[in-house]
Amino acid sequence: MAQELKRRWQNYIDGGWRDGADGDWIAVENPATGETIAEIARAGRADVDAALAAARRAFDSRELQDVRPVERGQLMFRIAREIEAMADEIALAECLDNGKSLAGGRNEALAAARYFTYYGGLADKVEGRMIPLGGNYVDYTIPAPFGVSAQIVPWNFPLQIAARSIACALATANTVVVKTPELSPLACTFLATACERAGVPKGAVNVICGYGHDAGAYLVAHEEVDHIVFTGSVPTGRSILKAAAERIIPCVMELGGKSAGIVFPDADLEQTVASTAAGIFSNAGQVCSAQSRLVVHRSVLDRLAEMLVARAESLSIGPGIDGHDLTPLISAPQAAKVEGFCLGAEQQGAEAATGGRRIESMPGHFMQPSIYVGVSPEMTIAREEVFGPVLAVIPFDEPEEALAIANGTDYGLCAGVYTRDLQTAHWAANRLVAGQVFVNEWFAGGIETPFGGTKRSGYGREKGQEALLNYVQSKNVGIRIAAGGGGRPGG
Ligand code: NAD
């Protein structure tokens, strides 16, 4: 299958495909085998300059702003159709450079297309309001785009994440420079192809791949950038915010998580196990909203742990291309980091009920599905984001204690409640400090539901109608209709 993938991939700048200005290439590895399967042009500073200049020109041309929003929506529907038409090619790229299964890669493509239809449908519904100032005035607000939006994408779901931010930007007539992840860049180039084929104005969407410390850092500190959308780790988010602070520009920060599901004694345990397996083992746990902690009432702890272990041990492990349940981690350093968390947990007194080690006998970067019991809330494995298929199970006795544990990390991305009792669900959902709470099904929700963090998990929302609010700023226009009036400065 690998032969079907193009060997050399380029950046998309100002409506054209280009090698890097420095002539360098980034090797792209298949995480399931460790083999280099392709290379992508490395964008350096000159490429960032060119992409931003193109995005600025496209914004200043007002081509996107001046059309009727419904036409921007139709343009986005065409992008969605182009993505759907390439779903099989995208699935293969996601499978080979990211490790996902073909089905998972195809889902990525279809979800990316859905972002363009969802936000395309909203493009003509981003409305201002009329503000009454009496008969002598007309006053209204315009939801105005920021200008050039710089978007930085992580490697775990590169296509979906790039699609959700580009779609919001286009719906609101911003122009975009996207820096795709150096570890899994291929699928995002299909977004550029879709934009090109759909007739997106030249320069309105630019897709480049470069290293974070180089092209990424240069991009976010660039004076041509008016707005930043970052999805990635807390340390990178912090450094981007510092760059943004220098120029006082707005940011959306979608950062990491250490999300907990609370299992009350009346929970449906079968449902809890199925939901937890999806929550921590899908995409090999490399999910920002993974359910990496399970806070379990002591009365059901042993039974649930036994069921979870059985579930984990039933998973098939292997390359996504062969349709396995548990696919590889993205890189050797990531696998070493995940295993390091497991070794640290054992040193701190947690017990591996199953797993805990890399699978050295397989090529690629595979990790055993791992469940730790005997975990206490202060252990590192209960506090820090592992970003691998590793679940920390923590017992509780009283509901307030469960809440304190769930809320007791620096993160606040998602949270969950397993119970048959509606009152308990509401009680907990109201008190959990998280941007999204799932009841009885981890990842309940979708493109339509707002998603984002509290605390160190970031701020701003992606997905849902709320996301569009991050891409516009309100401009007020006050008009004196009747003759007279000298204006009232101040206030
Ligand atoms: P990362 O922060 O290392 O990298 C993310 C992106 O930032 C990459 O494109 C990288 O090249 C770029 N980058 C790195 N240093 C940079 C710099 N100084 N300036 C500008 N850009 C820079 O994160 P990662 O390892 O790729 O992704 C995993 C992290 O992303 C996890 O913490 C995960 O929770 C988080 N994440 C969050 C969400 C969300 O929606 N909240 C979604 C997916 C992943």
From TrEMBL:
The keyword Oxidoreductase applies. The active site is at E254. It is an enzyme of class 1 (oxidoreductase). GO terms for molecular function: aldehyde dehydrogenase [NAD(P)+] activity. It holds the Pfam family Aldedh. It comes from the Bacteria. Keywords: Oxidoreductase. Residues 17-477 form the Aldehyde dehydrogenase domain. InterPro entries: Ald_DH/histidinol_DH, Ald_DH_C, Ald_DH_CS_CYS, Ald_DH_CS_GLU, Ald_DH_N, Aldehyde_DH_dom. Its EC number is 1.2.1.5. Belongs to the aldehyde dehydrogenase family. This is Aldehyde dehydrogenase PuuC. It comes from Oceanibacterium hippocampi.
